Amino acid sequence: MISLTGFGTLSGFCIFAQKLIVSEINFTPINELGEFGLIDRLTEQIKISNSSTLKAGGDDCAVIDYKNKQTLVSTDMLVSNVHFDLLYTPLQHLGYKSIVAGISDIYGMNGMAGQVLVSVAISNHFSIEMLDLLFSGMLAACEYYSVDFVGGDTTTIGSGLVINVTAMGHASKKDIVYRNGAKKNDVLCVTGDLGAAYTGLLILEREKHVYLEDKKMQPKLEGYDYVLQRHLRPEARMDIVKNFRELHIKPTAMIDISDGLSSEILHISKQSKLGCKLFEDKIPIDPSTYHTARELNLDPTTCSLSGGEDYELLFTLPVEEFEKIKDHPDFTPIGHMTDEDFGCKLISKSGGEHELKAQGWKVFGGEE
Amino acid sequence: MISLTGFGTLSGFCIFAQKLIVSEINFTPINELGEFGLIDRLTEQIKISNSSTLKAGGDDCAVIDYKNKQTLVSTDMLVSNVHFDLLYTPLQHLGYKSIVAGISDIYGMNGMAGQVLVSVAISNHFSIEMLDLLFSGMLAACEYYSVDFVGGDTTTIGSGLVINVTAMGHASKKDIVYRNGAKKNDVLCVTGDLGAAYTGLLILEREKHVYLEDKKMQPKLEGYDYVLQRHLRPEARMDIVKNFRELHIKPTAMIDISDGLSSEILHISKQSKLGCKLFEDKIPIDPSTYHTARELNLDPTTCSLSGGEDYELLFTLPVEEFEKIKDHPDFTPIGHMTDEDFGCKLISKSGGEHELKAQGWKVFGGEE
Question: Which chain B residues have a beta carbon less than 8 Å from that of A130?
Fold first, then answer.
């Protein structure tokens, strides 16, 4: 039995057999409602909490007014068997995570998220009860982050599940932080810790293979609570953006860590036309991530460099600004920006220099 | 050989064998580029034409500033074998249409479209050349409508093609037209003509079945140019919104016609808490739509009431305002709004009263 904050506890069995359980409770085919009935059912549950949301649902468009703020907008598509596996991903958690992944991009620009629009394509293996679970997770995230669910689209698909989240937010012109503003000698900082989501994913994949070989075997998930939580139900760092405002700090460059630390450092370096020096021994890795990686015969540093889906923030700050936050437990300095000629290097624990490489998500099997 | 404006001519063979032809010219697997390479290739072609677009691509979010205007936003998901059939839909046309379908919602609120964000999920049956065709169609629409392509996401999927378009636009508060503002006795008007896209679809479906039974048979598409064009490469009514501004006209209620006339009339009536009287003999139907419907043993009126994908605008105007546009060839009065108690009725050519029913897209097989 592992505890996953917010949606009660889930035994290993529950996770791996959710479809069975949900369908045993009740399986109402989607077509009993029809498209408009489905939309009505989902929109009934939506509450609006932002004054910038003038119209949500029920018309051709949502209407939003950020007054004198600039608008931030980003879109992300999640596909079953590419971004998530329905065998072990609870639908409520998936809904929550899809919103988090969307709004994380807004925080990565130092903005506040305000609205989301969500498109969902589902196959006829999906019941109304399953869709309700998915949406309840989305709405739980919207509530936690004070984000309004203002529009969407629901459609059918031959197989699987596709979710597209468009996240909108706002910031004053002076507060927006781009990737290209880092300066030489700026401190490179990261929030929280890295690599946990990826090791959590690997545990679920390991147990899935055990389960598929022998369905009487129940997945062993005990003791992996932290890494599983980080994979299945991550949080976005709205709190950090609020902290920056309170501390009167504005990073020179920032990005959210969705593809892994290496990839994000390279984005900031390339766009700021700089190099950087990253120190392996400074990378924040939680003890449970470390032990899980070791158990899987993986290098914990590699998991944090290339794992992805951490939804932490990577940013740069001038040294004198960094002084303001150096004792803050959420921030870890991991290196500094250099001349472009230096390139982007990882300084290993033994002092060796290694060129940083971006992994990306390799969803196309590419070598990026 | 049929002519489809904007992308040269396409023979029936070309349409039904596009995959073959494209792959014979060149088939470069997507994974040769990797995710970031793919994004670079696509974004290189993008040109920005709106001053409201402050940042497009290359960061966590796009940044947009509509100044004192309100923001309109809408999202639509298109799925292969649900919304389109790759057997007979040229990719360039599909790209164009996906943008048109997205921005049509902005015009339906009396706003001007400014930006789109596009997510695409493709299987590994897709080559870079095919993706280039799809994007070239999207960019052609962006150019025609002066809309900026500001962000997106590309991912893989087990099979098929999924496109999600989020359209953004703007309008002054005083100009935005909702569905709920119609008043009793307002004239119900429609732009252009209806039912063509649906009959075009039916012709393609008919020829597809002939082709699938005997692949030596070539589809007979000659003479159906207008209805095929309306299905494969529709246009959105930006011109009408501009007309309204020039004529100092503001409809009391408006909606774009994507699900068929009946469904849209019911939306306006329900939200305005009114009934309406629609006259069958007033519904504008192009002669080629009429003849195509008859050839298919269908009632042309039914095609226009329930066909969908016309992307025309349906709106209501007070009688005295209607006088300003009554001689305009793009506008046709088709009925008027009544008390709610009257319900929504179609008055047939023979004078009979029939209750209007919404068909929606029935993508879930429902009875809406």
Answer: none
CB contact under 8 A, B164 and A164: yes
- What residue ranges of chain B are covered by domains with CATH 3.90.650.10? 187-355
Which pLDDT belongs to residue B46? 84
CB contact under 8 A, B119 and A164: yes
Residues from chain B contacting residue A108 (CB–CB below 8 Å): 60-61
Mean pLDDT of A74-91: 94
- Does residue A11 register a pLDDT over 90? no
Distance from CA of B219 to the nearest CA of A (A): 26
Domain with CATH 3.30.1330.10 in chain B: 2-175
The 10s digit of each residue's pLDDT in A199-254 is 999 999 999 999 889 888 888 888 999 999 999 999 999 999 999 999 999 999 99
Average pLDDT over residues A265-286: 97
Tell which CATH classification among 2.60.120.560, 3.90.650.10, 1.10.3720.10, 3.40.50.1100 matches the domain B187-355. Answer: 3.90.650.10
pTM of whole model > 0.95?
no
For tokens 């960019």, the residue is B139
Residue B72: strand pairing partners: A63, B169
Q: Just give the CATH number of A2-173.
A: 3.30.1330.10
The answer to whether the CB atoms of A72 and B62 lie below 8 A apart is yes
* Residue ranges of chain B whose pLDDT lies below 70: 1-25, 359-368
Residues of B in contact with A271 (CB under 8 A): 58-59
Record: contact B34-A162, CB cut-off 8 A = no
B364/A83 Cβ within 8 A: no
Whether the CB-CB separation of B43 and B58 falls below 8 Å is answered with: yes
Nearest CB among A63, A83, A105 relative to B72 is that of A63
Query: CATH class for domain B2-175?
Result: alpha beta
The distance of B159 to chain A (nearest Cα, Å) reads: 9
CB contact under 8 A, B368 and A173: no
pLDDT for the residue numbered A188: 98
Q: What is the pLDDT of residue B172?
A: 95
Token pair for residue A301? Answer: 């540093």
Place of tokens 């995959």: B19
- What percent of chain A is modeled with pLDDT above 90? 74
Residue B57 φ/ψ, nearest 5 degrees: 70, 165
What digits encode the pLDDT tens for the residues A312-322? 999 999 999 99
Rounded distance between C-alpha atoms, residue A199 and residue A195, angstroms: 6
Write out the residue limits of the CATH 3.30.1330.10 domain(s) in chain A. Answer: 2-173
Which of A288, A98, A305, A91 is closest to A200 using CA atoms?
A: A288
Radius of gyration of chain B from its Cα atoms, rounded to whole angstroms: 21
> What gap in Å lies between CA A257 and CA A105, rounded to an integer?
9
Element (H, E) at B58: none
Nearest CB among B58, B61, B166 relative to A105 is that of B61
